[in-house]
Amino acid sequence: MSDELREVAPSVAKDIYLQQRWDDLSEATLKSHRYRIEAFVEWLEEQGISNMAEVDGLTIHNYRVHRREEDGLKKVSLQGQISTVRQFLRVLASVNAVDSDVAEKILLPTVRKGEDVNEDRLETGRAQKALEYLEQYQYASRPHVEMLLIWRLSARRGGIRSFDLRDFDDSGDTPVLEFRHRPETGTPLKNGKWSERDCAIKNESLAQTLRDYINGPRQKVRDDHDRTPLLTTKYGRVSLGTIKQDMYRVTRPCMYGIECPHDRDPNICEATQHDKASTCPSSRSPHMIRTGSLTAHLDAGTPKAVLSDRADATEKTLDRHYDQASKREQMIRREEFIAEDL
Fold it and tell me: Domains plus CATH for the chain?
């Protein structure tokens, strides 16, 4: 350890890093970095390390092993965690809190092509069964509307959370939902101003469900910025976590009458509890619903250029992360465009 290094506690180092990166990172990325650094700092403190100058290459190696073997992180998640730790140490080296060599010697886990793709998605058949159940038994409820918006629009949960009442334009022949980036009042879109777009609601069932939700179950509240959100709880604008839990609950097979594929008894299954839905192996997050929606659109022949604009995702991203079709399914898509008599 160099005598010139300052004595900085891990918790203080975390604050230094977040303050340094405040202007560089988007709100969502900064939040992700905060979680990753907090996990690292907590582990350091558990190891009895009270001064960041004590951190060396062996420390990082041990943390990497801990995250892989004890926390069970997959390779792609581990790569993200260690990459953020490396950035953290680089910032600390710039203020003489750690040796500058430590960060530069960190080797990131190698992720082979395809290993960074999450292949879990909500299949079309299951999405339709879930929506049929909601249509019959929870019509125009907030979870019903959330599921419809994510599935029909291939939208992110942050996008549907951002909607205000004014963003539902029902004045013309075709209703429109307007995605708008408003970071200063708590609803940023993933790609900033580039994510702004208008989506026509040609599905009359979705349009009418929105109207019935607004005129019925929707809580008539304002959020902390005096805006009128579309999706609400009694406390104000719905949170990202609440949307996620709502989707875990409505995608459990037992909820819409399918026999449990995991041989569990719904009467005693932990996943049937209100706050334990995510423990069901068949439940799906908003991201998995979006993935299923995008795959369904691609299977239906929607051109990638059109889907890219509507869903706020580049064609390269669609290919890499969202197109979960099998090689045979991709073949079938191509066939109608291939001339047979050349």
Answer: 10-104 (1.10.150.130), 124-322 (1.10.443.10)
**Phi and psi for 233 in degrees, rounded to 5?**
-120, 180
Q: What is the dihedral of CA 233, 234, 239, 244, to 10 degrees?
A: -40
- Tokens linked to 31: 């939040």
Residue 120 pLDDT exceeds 80: no
Q: What is the pLDDT of residues 143-201, one digit of tens each?
A: 999 999 999 999 999 999 999 999 999 998 999 999 999 999 999 998 899 999 999 99
Count of alpha carbons within 13 angstroms of residue 195, beta-carbon side: 17
Report d(CA 95, CA 8) in Å as an integer: 10
Q: Can you tell me whether residue 176 is helix, strand or coil?
A: strand
The secondary structure of 287-301, three-state, reads: HHHHHHHHHHHHHCC
pTM exceeds 0.85: no
